[in-house]
Amino acid sequence: MPNARRATAGAPAPGDPAPRGRIGLARGGRVANGRSARAHGGAGDRNGFRDLRLLDVHKSFGPSKVLHDVDLSIESGRTLSLLGPSGCGKTTLMRIVAGLEVADSGEIHVGDRLLAGNGVHVAPEARRIGLLGQERSLFPHLSVGGNVAYGLGRATDRVARVHEVLEMVDLAGFEKRMPDSLSGGQQQRVAIARALAPRPRMLLLDEPFQALDVHLRVELQIEIRALLGALGATAVIVTHDQDEAFIMGDEVAVMQDGRIRQRGTPTEVYSHPETPWVASFVGDANFVNGVGSGSTVATPLGRLSTCCSVSGEVAVLLRPAHIRLLEPSAEGADGSATGQVQAMRFFGHATECRVRFGDEVLLARSDRMPSVRVGDDVVLRYDGPPVVAYPASVMAGLRRNGKQWRGAPASPAR
Ligand code: ATP
Known about the structure:
414 residues; Rossmann fold; CATH 2.40.50.140; 2 domains
């Protein structure tokens, strides 16, 4: 039974087994006989992709419990970003889906096929799951055609299939090129073509852009996202990068300590995070204390509308882009919530100000050139949608996250 430690990334040498990313590349299943995957045509299974369902998956390594009760499903043709901090269990979960790790309990289904659970364990090479690790996973000594053909075994339609998948990723005619003569984006598309060649039912991409510089990464995120959409692929993208998760996923599942904490569209997760931890993991977050009453909450920045009914002591989420800074003399600045600018960072497209506000520091971000300077007194004004509030008690459990979490909540105006 496969229960190997994680595969390590690295350039394969001639004769090595398939190059392995962090998940490890399994050899694809045998090429299905008969009609081309394109012939399927239905919205739900274009190119042969299927949905994925994980039911109640648990996994421990020795005494340490790594996955708790994971339920997750992805409709065919959709891309899900699995987002979470390092060590939360993302790779372990994907290795279980790929069959490279065995869950203690739970079920994995792809389409109507049970791959694991209830005494079943389908071998990785028979699961028809395409795996992509980090971008340098091509065999450097094989041509593009050779790389793509890898995993097709002795299939009779190898040449035709290589041609077909290279066409799908817009690299028709590249068969004889060597990987080092391609751009990073082209290499990534070859890696996708290779994963597609054995007609997988779904794709798993584990931190596929991690090793790239920021410009290429953004370019590729957009390109690969469009490609997955055009292919109608069912795909899971593992990442610890919130921007990447939002760019790539039709939906995002946020994982913490081996549990899925929230799953939704990028907008839902960002705008209505279910816990303060999710709020601060998916973006910069300020929290201020509040006292809720129905659809409003009293905060140090005044009485604000809430998205849901609240009562009693709460912590209110304020995204930095929704805090406006006004000069005390500005029209409409009533001076009730005054702070002092402690530091500023200019990014070109935006400026970030840290404002001391009572005992706390709040972060405000604006896409306009601010008229304030470090040391100035400013009035803080909330200028955003109805706020999300959490029972004050849940804040106690929020672990500080240096980048996003900026101290204990500020208290409401008395
Ligand atoms: P990263 O983004 O850093 O790769 P991750 O979210 O993918 O992190 P995993 O690699 O799944 O996290 O690891 C989750 C936990 O399980 C970690 O504490 C890790 O040390 C542990 N772990 C993973 N594989 C094994 C193993 N084979 N034996 C023992 N512990 C393991």
